[in-house]
Write a structure and sequence with these properties.
Elements: E1 2-7, H1 9-15, H2 18-27, E2 30-35, H3 43-51, E3 56-60, H4 67-70, H5 76-81, E4 87-96, H6 104-121, E5 125-130, H7 133-146, E6 151-153, H8 160-168, E7 172-175, H9 185-193, E8 199-201, H10 223-234, H11 238-252
Parallel strand pairs: 1-2, 2-3, 3-4, 4-5, 5-6, 6-7, 7-8
Helix pairs in contact: 7-8, 10-11
Length: 262
């Protein structure tokens, strides 16, 4: 069994081929998928996808790109939505200075509101960070000093300092198809030093398709290629990667119900 810990299934619903996409994922051995919230205004769609399938869960949150229009200054709505049985995490939230689609102050404020919700609910926060390592670490540490909270750095593309800081706070790191790219040698070096019991895998589909599908639409079935790349980086068997990343997922996302047979 493999888990795709981060995908955006609403895109496949919009494209009209969600059912076929899920069939391909299941045929590839993907036993659980998490469809990620990016806006409160579209959360009902995310939740409905999770409700319709036993092997799909969801998160609720506001992406940093949306912080200018839907950013949060209070954790209340996240805490409320998190009571639903299918909501197993918060986010994705964080900082994105690459695109700067939202004012940085608004991104930071919304990020902190998500962290408070994670602390209050005990649900893990899915952290998005791009070209913002220093500020991401600063906010995570500042909030951690106020009280521990669970978190995951999703689609890890940052440097070793952010990885070290996240691991020191007990957070997890998730690898996407980026780890298969020729240009990702620094990421592979950082991941090689990270403990296997803190790593997850994801697609971030429909984005970031791994080699050999780079440039095409990504989908949950392709997470197996990320698993293969991670096995090479860690110099362990593919079955060990499947087992470890699945165990790690259910250890972090405690609301998700593990199938009785993987």
């Amino acid at each position: 069994m493999i888990v795709d810990s981060h995908c955006h299934l609403d895109y496949f619903l919009r494209d009209g081929d969600l059912a076929e996409t899920l069939d391909r994922a299941r045929d590839a051995g993907i036993g659980c998928m998490v469809t990620i919230g990016t806006k409160i205004s579209t959360f009902e769609t995310i939740q409905s996808i999770a409700e319709a399938h036993d092997d799909i869960y969801c998160t609720v949150g506001v992406h940093p790109h949306e912080a200018g229009t839907e950013g949060l200054d209070s954790p209340d709505i996240l805490i409320e939505k998190a009571q639903h049985a299918k909501v197993i995490g918060l986010g994705e939230s964080g900082l994105d200075y690459y695109y700067d689609h939202a004012p940085r102050a608004e991104q930071a404020k919304s990020f902190r509101a998500h962290i408070v919700a994670a602390r209050e609910t005990g649900l893990p926060l899915v952290v998005h960070t791009r070209d913002a390592d220093d500020d991401t670490v600063s906010i995570m540490r500042d909030e951690y000093e106020k009280g521990a909270y669970p978190a995951l750095i999703h689609c890890f593309t940052a440097g070793p300092d952010l990885a070290k800081a996240a691991l020191e706070m007990g957070f997890y790191i998730s690898l996407s198809g980026v780890i298969t790219f020729k240009s990702a040698e620094q990421i592979r070096q950082t991941v090689a030093e990270a403990p296997l019991d803190r790593l997850l895998i994801e697609t971030d589909s429909p984005y970031l398709a791994p080699i050999p599908f780079r440039g095409k639409r990504n989908e949950p079935a392709y997470v197996r290629h990320t698993a293969e790349a991670l096995a090479n980086v860690k110099n362990v068997s593919l079955s060990q990667i499947h087992s470890a990343t699945t165990d790690n997922f259910y250890r972090l996302f405690t609301k998700a119900k593990r199938p009785t047979t993987d």
